[in-house]
Amino acid sequence: MNRREVRLEQLMGRKVRDAEGRNVGRIYELEAVIELHAHGNEYVVTAYDVCFFGAFEWFASSHFGRHFLLMLVLPGGHRRYQIPWEVMDLSDPLRPRLTQRIDELSPRQ
């Protein structure tokens, strides 16, 4: 494994902090493209989906689950972020960090 490769199981569910150390949420999904090469294929991550509820996000995909999850949310809402790969610092994959502040991101609906 070279320096730019990170094992998927190291990232899923990890807490993400912004450049000032504030909690952004947990990684619950990755978006990737497949690059086809003569020597084999590579999956290249293009974005990380991060949410405060992270592991519960899959549950919220159902109608019932979404209403249940929203009942648990404090005023201020349920924030999800789609973070471009170039904004994520994975120099320590066990402690992913953004290279910018959380208020510089646009929440995703």
CATH topology: SH3 type barrels
Architecture, according to CATH? Answer: Roll
Distance between the termini: 35 Å
In percent, how helical is the residue content? Answer: 10-25%
Question: Can you say what the CATH homologous superfamily is?
Answer: PRC-barrel domain
- The top-level CATH class is Mainly Beta
Would you list the SSEs in sequence order as H and E? HEEEHEEEE
Q: Which geometry do the CA atoms define?
A: globular
Number of domains: 1
Overall pLDDT confidence: 81
Question: What is the count of helical runs?
Answer: 2
Q: Explain this structure to me?
A:
The chain is mainly β and 109 residues long. It has helices spanning 8-11, 63-72; strands at 15-17, 23-37, 40-51, 80-84, 88-89, 97-98, 107-108. The strands form two sheets. Strands 1-2-3-4-7 form a five-stranded antiparallel beta sheet, with no helix packed on it. The protein is globular. The termini are far apart.
Task: Describe, in short, the structure shown.
Helix content is about 15%, strand content about 40%. The protein is mostly beta strands. The chain has a 5-stranded antiparallel sheet with strand order 1-2-3-4-7, with no helix packed on it.
